[in-house]
Task: structure prediction
Amino acid sequence: MGSLLLLGVIVIWDTSRTELPALNMTISPKLFPLIIGWFLIALCAILAIQIIRGGTAVPEGLRAGDKIEKSDYKSFAFILLSFLSYIVLITRGGFVVASTVVFVGIAYSFGNRKFVKTLLIGLIFAVVTYFSFTRYLHVDLPAGILKGIL
Amino acid sequence: MDGFVSALSFTNLGFGLLGTFLGTLVGVLPGIGPALAIALLLPITYTVAPSSALIMFAAIYYGAMYGGSTTSILLNTPGESGSVMTALEGNQMARRGRAGAALATAAIGSFIAGSIATLILAFAAPEIADLAIKVGSADYVALMLVAFTTVGSLLGSSQIRGFISLAIGLVLGLVGADLQSGLTRLAFGNVSASEGIETVIVIVSIFALGEALYIASRFKDSGWTVISMKGKALMSREDVRRSWKPWLRGTAIGFPLGIIPAGGSEVPTFLSYSVEKKLSKHPEEFGKGAIEGVAGPEAANNANAAGALVPLLALGLPTSATAAVILVAFQTYQIEAGPMLFATNPDLIWTLIASLFIGNTLLLVMNLPLVRVWVQLLKIPRPYLFAGISCFALLGAYALNGSTFDLQVAIAIGIVGFLFRRFGMPITPLILGLILGPNLELQFRRALQISAGDYGTLIATPLSKILYISLILVLMAPTAIRLVKRSRAKTVK
Result:
């Protein structure tokens, strides 16, 4: 049932978002967004009908009729937090710091509890990636606070 | 022949080898596919020559098809979507101690199908390109609409979810300044957003970040059990006798379905599987490890990858997520894939096609004797695997422009990817919508400009008429099949 409610939220989110092009229409460049907007609204309506008739969503990797367990939102939130920390850390701390933190964070969310080992692996991973990208692929990555060392 | 000379040059061979290696790697590891691997490597297009990069990308595409079969057979977790059918019979064979035979029939079948299909590609693509030069804007509009419809209807659990995915992709494609009028759309006053959403970021984050979020929230605790392999990856004479026909039939099914926009390898592998089940002399073995059920779909899978390159090269029209990413690579090189490609960049094309033959041979060598090495990869603990993948994805999103706005977009798209998986929506339509949407709009406007606003021009040519009719047929097919089934059920009663 939780899934049904969430789908409803997506539907509303879609609709409210696409009403914007519908409001300020004039001519040519507005035509396409308008078509897509109405297309989306129509799709949402059909989906709503299907759900009411019992055609609920089946999560990927499961088959129709399988018992749908509740999502583990604790792990979900933790991973999301790791992702968000990357935004802050990449500019403040540099690539190696940000990558190591995300690495450890995600490994933790997946149930890994060996912190020291994970930290080391993450650090090696980040340093190797840093050098292979900056030296061999000529992609600039911020060195950040480790500027003197790297 | 010049193509072979160029493809065998040290640099290109090196990139080809690297591509086959990476391709097998991403194919073997569940959760990451060729589309993601190529998207992550797109930054190299800034520093590497076009032919080398494209050779590598094509090799990744082929390689993933080989690698995916290994995972399906030994792990029962399809490494990529085209291997779902292989998992059915292949895993059963492995459980009965016939892993070696299953892996061999998959690899040899892939090799044969890949070689035949690449040969057809070499002959067919220039012919199609010749025809395609005559294709006008209105026809392109029709072609793209057909591509959207088939991809939307054929993938995923329901037609409606496919179309929703497509529509969201189209919306993402709208964001930013309109190329012709300069009008900024859906940017909500954000300067970074007005430059549009980078395709690469969407692809990388919807696959990698979305997958990490989804797996963590659902299948975190379900570990992997690799079935150990006894003996070598070899086939008995009996196995070969039972495999060669499915190989050829698989090729015959996979290649044409790659050319038409059927949305990747799910449909052809499924078709091949059901054909083999019907034609088999041992139908009772299906579901318990029938070798035909591995040989056919695996051949179809590889032939399909080659087939998908035909519309990509000849029309600039991708029919699968991976082909769509390769198209983005063309775009970053300012090379326009499509009918003119054979006239403007013949060297590139022939080098690419030659490298496909070479890559295919390399893959056979890498996959038969070295299969144990790949299996070792599956022993990487999942926390590290997903941590690494996510780090790469974030790196890819950031390195593109060095902007944190891109990272915000990436994380948001990652959440979308999670929701798509949670609610059973296919991802490929979104990617096609994102990449082809702006293109469709451009051709649509061009057609109407030429006709001075007369909508009749859209259905004026014979080709467009045929295409629209087939479009309606595709849309109606699922409903029609349901109706027929229902009426049959009634007559039986």
User: Anything to note?
Assistant: The mean pLDDT of chain B is 79. The two ends of chain B are 64 Å apart (CA to CA). Residues 99-132 of chain B form the longest helix (34 residues). Residues 110 and 299 of chain B are 5 Å apart (CA to CA).
